[in-house]
From TrEMBL, chains A, B, C, D:
InterPro entries linked: Hydroxyisourate_hydrolase (IPR014306), OHCU_decarboxylase (IPR018020), OHCU_decarboxylase_sf (IPR036778), Thyroxine_BS (IPR023418), Transthyretin/HIU_hydrolase (IPR000895), Transthyretin/HIU_hydrolase_d (IPR023416), Transthyretin/HIU_hydrolase_sf (IPR036817)
MF terms (GO), sorted A to Z: 2-oxo-4-hydroxy-4-carboxy-5-ureidoimidazoline decarboxylase activity
Gene3D superfamilies: Oxo-4-hydroxy-4-carboxy-5-ureidoimidazoline decarboxylase, Transthyretin/hydroxyisourate hydrolase domain
Enzyme Commission (EC) number: 4.1.1.97
NCBIfam families assigned: hdxy_isourate
Protein's name according to its UniProt entry: 2-oxo-4-hydroxy-4-carboxy-5-ureidoimidazoline decarboxylase
Pathway in which the depicted protein is active: Purine metabolism; urate degradation; (S)-allantoin from urate: step 3/3
Domain Transthyretin/hydroxyisourate hydrolase stretches: 159-272
Keywords: Decarboxylase, Hydrolase, Lyase, Purine metabolism
Residues annotated as domain Oxo-4-hydroxy-4-carboxy-5-ureidoimidazoline decarboxylase: 8-143
Catalytic activity: 5-hydroxy-2-oxo-4-ureido-2,5-dihydro-1H-imidazole-5-carboxylate + H(+) = (S)-allantoin + CO2; 5-hydroxyisourate + H2O = 5-hydroxy-2-oxo-4-ureido-2,5-dihydro-1H-imidazole-5-carboxylate + H(+)
Length: 273, 273, 273, 273
């Protein structure tokens, strides 16, 4: 991967070649940015690309939208959702003259369909601005995959947790944790499974290094097993066995730290930091 | 319903007639208790009935078990559970020579099957004692339905809740609450639905006036709607929308007060009093 | 104590005699109210007295203020506070032409001095209205002490607590609780001391049956002793020994329920209901 | 400061000279350890010193105790405490024949006097072992100040905090925090003052880089100022103004993370990690 310094020093042609994929079908955007080098940060480079896009002639910007590929990565949709999505996007292309563009990595299944339905109802001018915003979000993620350097744009979020046992005042190790996306009242999808370590945390974030899809989630802790092992004499079924923390993510680039602070008879959670 | 005083003063024959249903097929139990009148409390009357039963000849006590009807009120079981239960109880009768006796009101669906399977594996002497204990639990409930007076036996439990909004320091009114029995990871059954009143409580307990069946439960609060209405500017989906408190009941005669103390970004619960 | 019914039926003269003390030096107020009988509630009677006062000629209302006695019940002030209060009230009488009137039962020591200083700085018209409001607050309390009946005015508040042990999921009995008024960083005054009962509550509210003086308070729980007795093996000094909940009361007629929900390593509180 | 590697390679004489101060008056301890080089960790070096001390002839070990200087760093004691401490240590020397030895950095004022009184009452054999343990604790701290390398002995603890606002789900910046040692009901001593940063934490731990003296502490947060600024319309005095978390430290080498999770009407704390 080239560094930002490499790009700052590269021949104009090489710079454009290296960044061509950021805005597919709009090579002049990279060319305009090339002229503004050097950049102190990757954020600065992204801003130059955005400004170049915004300064481009209307026809060029429209062409960028028109030439966007269809949303990819949708195999996670159910058959019914797929059919609904296909119908919505067909109506969308009909209505606006360009395909439905969305940074799909930032959306859970329900949010994806909701966004599509909502945008189908918006007016053409607003919608064109929204589509271009999404192009820019996709571009930011692509840029981060292509270049490394100081001041990277914030394109990833995180879901993390830790478990604290208030009977002992110690982190709870060995607690099985599962993160599910809450697709509907009848369907949840397992996203990650982990076990807390000696520090009561999972070795890696449950979601990290990518945007956190906008969705409701369900974070489940087998805390009953922990207390069965450490606190003999609890009734069966115990008051707390599987604790389920349901929370929504609206900011895919945010950090959602969702701890569980528990005794056998009480617990609390909060959005932590 | 006769009062305890009425029973204390009744002719022996009337006393026996009034209480005959407490231990069906064992009229001599009520007769023996009649001789020990007066009773200061219904608890005292129940204790006398229990002692009379325990003092009865072995054959009579065995007959009491043998003549118990099959467990009733099992229409809430699924077809598969019913089949499993029928198989277990048939094996049980075979093994022990009397039908499977259980105070079914005290057991959720999963607990019912678990109890049956566990007791099928116990030794005959232990099992006979367990069966007699269950007869006594059933008798206690029947007695409470037949007599009223001081010192009633504790045969009912309670599930209650209240919702507190820590942004305003006030009870949260108008919050929709649902109590579900957690039958399995794929089936929950709605037990009660209510809305919190001005005091953040439900007008009546979610379960009350009867034993609380041994089971895991899921208490769900539409707290997101409350904060949408009172706290504009929250993201969508909100961090908290439906909060789900999963807790187990092991003591059917206990009071499970399970409050929700919440802000838009945090909540806690505990077994309260 | 006469009932509201008695007063509704009493001779006019007796009604006026009975309620004369409510507005000392303003007998015509009670006379005007007498003509509006009967009253369905004591609140209604109070409203009639208030309206009669407000309808009285200006001179009469001013006389009511002028003839008010000096604030009583101030022996709780320190010598320095007394001196400061005397200076402030002297300046007040000078400035406004009537004595400083305040329902002192509604104010802690610091709040009393703060109120006096603040009101000394207000303009005469506002201050006259404020003084009359205080006369009405005093009148409401007096009326509640003189009559009993339906619809009593709300003139009392409450401070209460309960202690919950989240290790056992049970109320914590036998916990010594002390309520202190926080007068300054160097002085607190013990207001009430109690021990929690089997239900984790105190037998009576820590403050009740009277207004809760506006003040910061410090509610201290000897929770360390509880956990020493129930949870062997804690270090010494324990993480939690005396828990101190500092909270402010701004609404003397409010109910401040301030619970302690604790394990040996965690606790929480909130304004409950 | 020499590195562990330097010491591993140093001439025996230089090694002994470098570590002489670890056990003053017992040069043979360092000599015995020198013969066991090289050490992979500073922990390993400390263990070798300890074993050398334990293997030394009884007279030498006693001499080590006898030659210890009086406890230093006691100027923080009040006059009365000083007098009490002087009396206790004089009695101690009388009784045991060597001065009272204690790693004073690990003890708050009350704990220091309590330890002295308790040890005065112990039997000579136990007390000699206790004194030697304290010599080793002092030695560990000295060693850490003299050498640096892998596997440092754990001789420091930490008190830290963070403040979370549950109304916004964000860290609370700009909150003034004070840590006081709770010497007695009438005396607290300010240990540290800090302000929370954008992450709701203090830039440095409130205590760190040294043992945390055994003592009760009071951690005070001016949370009322935070909510006055962010949450208009709260009453005055507010329900929460200064929150005071009183907690005890029994493990001077432990990490005491004591967060405040608060709304204007509720808060919680726990020993975190």
């Amino acid at each position: 991967m080239p560094s930002l310094d490499d790009l700052n020093r590269a021949a104009r042609k090489d710079f454009v070649a290296a960044l061509g994929a950021v805005f597919a079908h709009a090579p002049r955007v990279a060319e305009a940015a090339a002229a503004r080098r050097p950049f102190a940060t990757v954020e600065g480079l992204l801003a130059a690309l955005r400004e170049a896009l915004e300064a481009a002639p209307d026809a060029e910007r429209r062409a960028l939208l028109t030439n966007q590929p269809e949303c990819a990565g949708l195999d996670r949709l159910s058959e019914a959702e797929h059919a609904r999505f296909a119908a919505l996007t067909a109506a969308y292309t009909d209505r606006f003259g360009f395909p439905f563009i969305l940074c799909v990595q930032r959306h859970g299944r329900a949010a994806l369909l909701r966004a599509c339905a909502a945008r189908l109802a918006s007016d053409p001018e607003t919608e064109r601005a929204t589509a271009q915003d999404e192009v820019l979000r996709i571009a930011a993620i692509r840029l981060c995959a292509l270049v490394e350097g100081a001041g990277m744009p914030r394109t990833t979020g995180r879901i993390s947790t830790h478990v604290l046992d208030t009977v002992t005042g110690r982190p709870a190790p060995g607690v099985e944790v599962e993160l599910h996306e809450w697709v509907s009242d009848t369907e949840t999808v397992l996203i990650a499974r982990a076990e807390t370590n000696a520090d009561g945390r999972t070795d890696a974030p449950l979601v990290g290094g990518r945007p956190v899809p906008i969705a409701p989630y369900d974070l489940r802790f087998r805390i009953g097993d922990h207390f069965r092992a450490t606190h003999p004499g609890l009734p069966e079924p115990p008051f707390l066995d599987i604790v389920s923390l349901r929370f929504g993510v609206a900011d895919p680039e945010g950090h959602y730290h969702v701890p569980l602070v528990a005794s056998p008879w009480s617990y609390q959670t909060y959005r932590g930091s």
